User: Which sequence fits this backbone?
């Protein structure tokens, strides 16, 4: 699965996610990636793209949950993403991670698996890319 | 002043000692860096966040190292089923496609759904008909196949429980391809 989140110079947010699914999956199985609110979500508060155990991300509405925790719970981006990725997803046996950006340009890339391919960059600064472990 | 920013991911998963290959890691880092740099240039020129995430994901779909577009994994029946979604935070508009096999860039189809349909999600043949009607590039089903992904399927089908086996040497990719989500 791949994805992107961005904050533009006008202060708007957007998210996109794309995937080939899981190796050897049953034909017709759909994961979280194409479902707004599960594997992909953007509002005027936060943009989120997920990768992981699709069924768990669907059941938790993981991407929207980050936004809801911020909007209704008053959590920061860091608190909201930590709650979802490090607490809620593992509680249901899921693993993986997400990338998220808020309207202030804060970027969080948490994961609860052993590694994740990620990159980010602010306009005018050097791009950063790594296999985070 | 807004700090225009892009972040991308190419999946998460398991790292095994045998899969840590320095050259492979460098290839992945280079691909990610190029896509981030391209997105930064778009943002610097005033492009919208929606355009930037669409293009970043399109580039990831074009890179065979990641599980999306070219290089997608195989289903049990040795086919490909691709899914994508795009969402605009400014308007809460969204577009998505699922279970498509002939659209070169599913993220562009998702974007077309967002822009040119009153609906949010199209699946299978309906999604492909919609994409074709929008003038998107259609490809043969094997366009997305790579030898590495076929071997990955064969391992999965031969061993059935391969997703639980992380002791065996794999392809040398930084993340074990059999235990990577996406």
Assistant:
């Amino acid at each position: 699965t791949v994805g992107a989140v961005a904050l533009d110079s006008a202060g708007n947010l957007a998210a996109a996610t794309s995937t080939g699914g899981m190796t050897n999956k049953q034909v017709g199985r759909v994961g979280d990636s194409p479902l707004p609110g599960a594997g992909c979500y953007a509002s005027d508060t936060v943009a989120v793209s997920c990768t992981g155990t699709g069924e768990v991300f669907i059941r938790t509405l993981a991407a929207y949950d980050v936004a809801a925790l911020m909007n209704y719970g008053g959590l920061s981006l860091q608190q909201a993403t930590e709650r979802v990725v490090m607490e809620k997803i593992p509680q249901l046996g899921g693993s993986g991670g997400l990338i998220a950006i808020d309207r202030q340009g804060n970027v969080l890339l948490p994961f609860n698996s052993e590694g994740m391919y990620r990159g980010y960059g602010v306009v005018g600064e050097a791009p950063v890319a790594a296999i985070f472990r | 002043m807004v700090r225009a920013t892009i972040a991308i991911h190419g999946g998460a998963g398991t790292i095994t000692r045998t899969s840590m290959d320095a050259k492979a890691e460098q290839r992945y880092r280079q691909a990610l860096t190029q896509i981030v740099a391209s997105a930064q240039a778009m943002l610097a020129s005033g492009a919208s966040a929606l355009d930037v995430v669409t293009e970043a994901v399109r580039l990831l779909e074009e890179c065979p190292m990641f599980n999306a577009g070219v290089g997608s994994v195989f289903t049990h029946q040795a086919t490909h089923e691709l899914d994508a979604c795009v969402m605009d935070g400014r308007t809460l508009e969204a577009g998505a496609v699922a279970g498509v096999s002939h659209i070169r860039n599913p993220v562009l189809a998702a974007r077309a759904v967002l822009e040119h349909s009153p609906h949010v999600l199209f699946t299978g043949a309906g999604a492909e008909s919609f994409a074709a009607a929008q003038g998107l590039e259609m490809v043969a089903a094997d366009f997305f196949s790579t030898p590495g992904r076929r071997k990955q399927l064969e391992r999965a089908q031969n061993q059935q429980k391969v997703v639980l086996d992380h002791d065996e040497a794999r392809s040398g990719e930084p993340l074990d391809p059999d235990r990577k989500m996406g």
